[in-house]
Each structure stands twice: as C-alpha cells, then as structure tokens.
Amino acid sequence: MSATQSRWFRRFDSTAEGELTLICFPHAGGAASAYLGLSRALAPDIDVAAVQYPGRQDRRTEPALTSLPHLARAVAEELTRFPQRPYAFFGHSMGAVVAYETARILAEFDLPTAQSLVLSGRGAPSRTPRATDRLSGDAALIGEIRRLNGTNGRVLDDPEVLEMVLPTLRADYGALGSYRWLPGPPLDIPLTVMVGSSDPIVTVEDAAGWLAHSTRPGEVLTFDGGHFYLDAHLASVAAAVRSALGQPAVV
Q: Which of 16, 65, 76, 155 would bridge with 47, disulfide CB 3.0–4.6 Å?
C-alpha cells in the first residue's frame, strides 16, 4: 500500500519526486485541500501528503472522529501500513495538536516517526486550554470561524453549504474542547513553531511553549497576519518549511 492508495492521505502534485514527504494536518473544519497551495509551492522536491480526516469532502459519509487522541492514533496506524520514505509533519491550529499526538504515539511504540515537526497557529498543549476550544452552539461556532477569517463569508451565508459543514465543525470543536494534554517524555524531534503576529487566539508566548516539548533545539517564527496568516504568506511559509526540513531554498 502507498500513500496514494490510502483513504487517509491526499496528494496534489504527481510530479513531486523528493526524498522527503511532508504529512500535513488540517485545522478544525478543514480538509486535505487546505494544503493545495503549500503542496504546489513545495513541489517537486518535497512531496506533500495531506491528511483527509473522516467526515469531509470525499470522506463526508464517514462519521467525524470526536477525540483528538483517537484521530492521532488512526493516522499513526495508517502510517505503519505502507513503506514510508523519510517524512516530516506540518500541522496548523487543531492540526498542530493532531500532528504532535501522532508523533508521540509513534515514539511511544518505537516506530519510525517524523524527522521534523512544524507546528503552526496553536499554543503548546501543556498551557491552559483556550476558552474558544469549548464553544457551545452553532451560533458560537459560526461566530468564531468568522472572527478567524477561516472560511469565506459567502460559504457561511449559504444555508445548504452551512448545513454540510456544521457537523464537521461541531465534531472538531468538540474534540478540541475535550482534549487534555497528558504529561509524558518530550519528543526527540526538532520543532519549528509558526504563528501570526496578530492571531486573536494564539500569542507568540503561547506558541513558544511548544519548544519545551522536545529535547532538540527549536525556533519560533512570526509572520504578519492573523490566525490564517499562511494564506497571505504562502511563499514565505514554504521557504520556512524548506529551511526547517533542511531542504535547499528555491532560487
């Protein structure tokens, strides 16, 4: 089995021939397609495989998982099912937690794990949980998504589309609200942490807390913008990812 045959991973560039695969974990309510732009920016020397969580896009008929540890375990199990060349993890917002927990599970069972971990738009899990992770009611969910500018406003204004995306949002925010970090050994993986300078829910200090979760040196990178700074700084983010993965810059 290969990543291209797995229901858990989506690839957007068949020309990618690099020796390293970047496994990307989407944000709450997000799908694998959130990483289409990054995949194209990193091709062809870095192969991007974006995780497709259940309950969205081509997996919309499957029930969404409502536990981040269970979601991480499912991804970890899938990664062991096929021969895998060296890989790294990139996770944004909720995806940062899922990527981190996936790496912890692989390390716990002494399985091949990510060579590098890039964590974006999320504070360290050992810090106090965010109040916005415990939203209750559809109106609160919609208001939070509008505040973060994570979904086109016209989508949220379309009743039919909204009906399709709300179950996923409910599941993901429910998973965030119930998630509690369990202390354990730090990872032996280099961490690169990224955050928007005006992110309304993640401070630079919160993001820097991730560095205590690894025995390796790490760095915190700040980009202009809010929670979804990636959209406006794709080229800069891609360059930072290349550097974090030890890949040569594109000239």
A: 16
